[in-house]
Design goal:
mainly alpha; Farnesyl Diphosphate Synthase; two-stranded antiparallel ribbon; 2 strands; 75% helix; 1% strand; globular; magnesium
């Protein structure tokens, strides 16, 4: 099943999510509408909402609450993007100018806050303390991940373990919530809930690992952001960490200097070092291992087209080039 087939399977649910997003994004403040609609409609994969919908359907859910949850998850995700681009001083995302480059940092931060608070309004409307507990804890862990990443920036001595801690907090946690919530609203047994959470957590980790290797193996046009952005921001991602550990002294020194000073002027040379040291293959294998664990987690689920879509989505996460 390819990515188009996956989204075709849930197209009615995704259409309902898009409609709810547009409805709940509305504000009496014009700037919120302009900036909010720009970032929400800027060509994202809607992967996290899709996981919430597929998880609920795979667990036999037939209600409509999954639409609300998928929308909340997308709002939380979008808020993190707005804040990330300000912190990283990014000017390109998904092949377009970032909101902060168009409206400024202040507006981006404040509209990000609006999306966070709107998502919490919607959580309350669901009237489930269990769902609120999961979502509020998830949001808190993501914030911790942002701070952990900030602490690692420009630190060339960041270990693989510290890097993985960041991606588990910053990226995988919201994936995990999307998978877990689909099982929770379905009234699934605790072991199924755990399985769905584990599936999505490992999928999220794989997704971020692939994002980090694409930064050194694809073109700006393909991935929708500037090549070497992570390096320019001084982020020691796994390809860089591995290349430093396995390159010679000169190669390690070049990467170290680039991380510590946030440089991409030697990006061509650094990409060559990353390729020569096998860092791309190492990162790809780490992502494949995460995908294997994600797929193994689904063994407990009964067979269905939704389970198949979840398995295919895991494959897509490592096979994509954008």
């Amino acid at each position: 099943m390819d990515i188009q087939s996956i989204y075709s399977l849930i197209q009615d649910d995704m259409k309902a999510v898009d409609e709810l997003i547009q409805q709940r994004l509305q504000s009496d403040v014009a700037l919120i509408n302009q900036l909010g609609f720009y970032i929400i409609n800027s060509g994202g994969k809607r992967l996290r909402p899709a996981i919430a919908i597929l998880s609920a359907r795979a667990c036999g859910y037939e209600g409509s609450q999954h639409i609300n949850l998928a929308t909340i998850i997308e709002f939380i995700h979008t808020a993190t993007l707005l804040h990330d681009d300000v912190v990283d001083n990014s000017d390109m995302r998904r092949g377009q100018e970032t909101a902060n480059s168009l409206w400024g940092n202040e507006a981006s931060v404040l509209v990000g806050d609006f999306l966070y608070t709107r998502s919490f309004e919607m959580m309350v409307e669901i009237e489930s303390m269990r769902l609120m507990q999961i979502l509020s804890h998830t949001t808190n862990v993501i914030a911790e991940g942002e701070v952990l990443q900030l602490l690692n920036c420009h630190d060339a001595d960041t270990t693989e373990a510290r890097y993985l801690e960041v991606i588990h907090h910053k990226t995988a946690k919201l994936f995990e919530a999307a998978g877990q919530l689909g099982a929770v609203i379905s009234g699934s047994e605790p072991h199924i809930e755990t399985a769905m959470a584990n599936y999505a957590m490992h999928l999220g980790s794989a997704f971020q690992l692939v994002d980090d290797l694409l930064d050194y193996s694809q073109s700006s046009e393909t991935i929708g952001k500037n090549i070497g952005d992570d390096l320019a921001e001084g982020k020691p991602t796994l390809p860089l960490i591995y290349a430093m550990q396995h390159g010679n002294a000169e190669q390690a020194a070049i990467i170290r200097e680039a991380i510590e000073n946030g440089q991409r002027d030697r990006i061509t040379e650094i990409i060559q070092i990353i390729q020569e040291t096998g860092a791309i293959d190492y990162t790809a294998k780490a992502a494949e291992q995460e995908v294997k664990q994600a797929k193994d987690s689904l063994d407990l689920l009964v067979d269905s087209e939704y389970k198949q879509a979840l398995l295919s989505l895991a494959d897509f996460s490592v096979q994509r080039d954008y």
